[in-house]
Amino acid sequence: MAPHPDDEVVGCGGLLSLLAARRRATRPVSSVSRGTAPFVEVIGVTDGDASHPGSTNWTPERLAARRRLERLRGLRHLGIRAPVHSLGLPDGRVDSHERSLVDVLSRRLRSDDVVITTWRHDGHPDHETVGRACAEAVRAVGATLIEMPVWTWHWARPGDAAIPWHRLRQLSLSGRALEDKWLALSEHRSQLTPDGERPPVLFPEAVDRLLRSAEFYFVPEPSA
Ligand SMILES: [Zn+2]
């Protein structure tokens, strides 16, 4: 479940590519087209229409349409062709819809599902709301929650006491997965290009950090 278009690339693009590759290697082509449930479902919470506030080039409507397209194109690079479920909640104000998010997800989830979303304490209000909603829905049905630090990398310091280091795991990416992630991220041009005098939303240092050869995830608290 991605709060904004690009969170699924930024946070777990490499993992999605690895999962898609494994799927291709273990399933015969004939069974892929047989109409079974998709192995990955992407739920887009907002269309990211508030990434350029006050811009004369990007109205919220234009941004939403563009970013939905960027998301689809990006996911294709990762081998994900399942339809995206777009909830269309207001970018930057997801907190007023937390209850309905829990309901939407609870209805879709089964106990053997794994939900990947942004960390509950990521430092961005939408990311935190979606993380909390997922945690509640997952708890209710007995599914598994994996949380992605995304904005965390902007503020966390080495050894930061705010980070649950014991839950953090590193996933090493293959060269192919890293390349797929780069191609997917490249589709999000609205976030990567300057808007007149304004710098890109995803500035070069942030992009460099995103394209490390590993991704990091918070796994569930070990049970006692
Ligand atoms: Zn986001």
Blueprint of the fold:
Elements: H1 7-10, H2 13-26, H3 29-32, E1 42-46, H4 60-77, E2 84-89, H5 98-108, E3 114-118, H6 125-141, E4 144-148, H7 152-155, E5 168-172, H8 175-186, H9 189-192, H10 204-210, E6 214-218
Helix pairs in contact: 2-8, 4-8, 5-6
Zinc ion binds next to loops.
The radius of gyration computed from the alpha-carbon positions, rounded to a whole number of angstroms, is 17 Å
> What ligands are attached or bound here?
zinc ion
* Coarse structural class: alpha/beta
CATH superfamily: LmbE-like
Strand proportion: 5-15%
What is the 3D form?
globular
Order of helices and strands: HHHEHEHEHEHEHHHE
Summarize the structure.
The protein has 224 residues and is α/β, with parallel strands linked by helices.
